[in-house]
Write a structure and sequence with these properties.
Radius of gyration: 24 Å
Number of strands: 13
Helix content: 40-55%
Distance between the termini: 38 Å
Shape: globular
CATH architecture of the largest domain: 4-Layer Sandwich
Structural class: alpha/beta
Number of helices: 11
Mean pLDDT: 89
Order of helices and strands: HHHHEEHEHEHHEEEHHEEHEEEE
CATH topology of the largest domain: Purple Acid Phosphatase, chain A, domain 2
Length: 396
């Protein structure tokens, strides 16, 4: 946590320093204006930390207002810096080329004030679109054929949600829209692949009741993500169980003739909350004749587990949530979000996530509810075992 806070404060302070430099280049500010802007930026830098402290003090309305304000500002700042930084890089390249060629490529010049105004308006416009995209819940529908799905079992439909981040910002309204997408598909099983809750659990009684009311025929299964540990594991487990989920913590169950195995997020070790059992041993203990579904929050591939599962469902990355953060998440997790990845043995599906973390927007990373149809095939090694069925959205 200390390392995280150091990195956060350093990076976020530098981002604000860059913005301040742009403001000072665009406007002639007197001393009072400069002091006011600096104080505002200092409050915004500290605000995400203050949100958590306010939550823990039980001041929920204050924490919610502060969360909306500070995380919305964070999103706007990131978009502005992305636009302004791109312009600065392009201008630097042009100036370098002009010096090398000893001639001007263009006579057009834009004043710092005009440029700042254009970039600020674009950032606000993109933020508005990002709010729309965050509400545009996609229904991703895929089909997997396997000889391990018996003719007697027939089609089994699994709905996956991931990274809901229920808390101060993601609340009852979004959950109802998600449920509308799930109910369209009439799944047999609902699985949550971690981060069902955010950093703190405050007055989520309505949300727990809504989740509990959703009762697919073969039940609901959840696993831990890193935010379950940040929120406080006992409270997170209590909320998940009140919501009607069976929590799998390094264990497997047989549901409708399918092995469902859930493993804890690695945060269980880094936060000193316990010991993560061997994924290989858990998978090895499952009935070999059944289709094996592995629920794992992060899209890490354990080479020792290959051949022991047929499909891994993961989340965690949000596909970066706001472009171009997807470039950073791709660096750590090169698997492609929103589509199936063939492994040496088995398949991986990496969800883009269903909710939002931090800024309540998404950009080029729409949220999703994933519907996986498992169907029977007589082929031992089907040549084409996956197929995209449809892609629908709902921005209600």
């Amino acid at each position: 946590m200390t390392s995280f806070l150091f990195v956060y404060l350093s990076v976020y302070s530098l981002a604000h320093s860059y913005l301040l430099r742009k403001i000072r280049a665009a406007f002639l500010l007197d001393r009072k204006a400069r002091i006011g802007i600096v104080l505002f930026m200092a409050v915004m830098i500290a605000a995400p930390i203050m949100v958590r402290l306010t939550e823990r003090a039980g001041i929920e309305q204050g924490a919610r207002l502060l969360a909306y304000t500070s995380f919305s500002w964070m999103g706007l700042l990131f978009l502005f810096i992305t636009l302004a930084g791109t312009v600065d890089v392009v201008r630097f390249l042009i100036l370098t080329a002009e010096k090398a060629q000893k001639r001007k490529f263009t006579q057009a010049r834009v004043s710092p004030r005009q440029l700042f105004a254009i970039q600020a308006m674009l950032a606000i416009a993109v933020y508005g679109y990002g709010m729309f995209e965050a509400a545009d819940i996609r229904l991703e529908h895929i089909q997997i054929a396997s000889p391990k799905i018996t003719e007697r079992t027939g089609r089994t439909c699994i709905a996956q949600i991931s990274d809901m981040h229920l808390g101060l910002i993601v609340r009852e309204g979004r959950l109802k829209r998600v449920f509308a997408r799930i109910e369209e598909a009439k799944p047999d099983i609902l699985v949550s692949t971690g981060d069902l809750v955010d950093g703190q659990l405050n007055h989520l009684t309505k949300e727990a009741g809504l989740l509990a009311a959703l009762q697919p025929p073969l039940g609901k299964i959840a696993i831990t993500g890193n935010h379950e540990f940040y929120a406080g594991l006992p409270d997170a487990l209590d909320f998940t169980e009140k919501s009607g989920f069976t929590m799998l913590r390094n264990q497997g169950v047989v549901v409708g003739g399918i092995n469902v195995v859930g493993v804890d997020d690695p945060a269980v070790k880094s936060l000193g909350k316990g010991r993560a059992d061997s994924e290989h041993d858990i998978l090895l203990a499952q009935p070999k004749e059944n289709f094996t579904l592995l629920l794992k929050h992060r899209p890490d591939i354990d080479s020792d587990s290959l051949g022991l599962f047929d499909l891994q469902l993961s989340g965690h990355t949000h596909k970066g949530q706001i472009f171009p953060f997807n470039l950073f998440t791709w660096f750590f997790y090169p698997q492609r979000s929103g589509q199936l990845t063939r492994l040496n043995s088995g398949l991986l599906y990496l969800s883009r996530g269903t909710g939002t973390w931090g800024p309540p927007i998404r950009l080029l990373a729409p949220p999703e509810v994933t519907i996986i149809d498992l169907v029977h095939t007589d082929e031992l090694f089907p040549a084409e075992c996956t197929e995209r069925i449809d892609r629908k959205s709902d921005s209600r």
